[in-house]
Design a protein that fits this description.
Blueprint (H helix, E strand, L loop, with lengths): L7 H4 L54 H14 L3 H18 L8 H13 L1
Length: 122
Amino acid sequence: MTTRTRTAEDQLPDDDEDINVGDDVKTPKKRAAVTPNSRKQLGRPERRRGRKPGPTRVMMNVRVLLETDDLVTEIGEETGMGPQDVTDVAIAHYAAYLRRSGKLPKVPKTVQADQEEQTEAS
């Protein structure tokens, strides 16, 4: 059994024609990033010019029980609201309940911090 070894000559190009240097090299064009939930990909029309974008939202990933998902669907069908709106209303309602029961401060912390900053500035 014969073992072959590679030499440096086998690995390197023998002339400079194989190497592209300088202006001859073309850089690949960058494609615009398309978000997977863009209106165009969803088959929806572009947002009309001058229309306000709506409230600022943050991504929140949660997993819910099947029964809870069925409830959200049922509430949405009865009220005509989407899952986002159902969730927003449910969380606001629960927070109001916790405030009434004394388990949450009466004024949300963000509002409290804003009020404290205003009093310190005056």
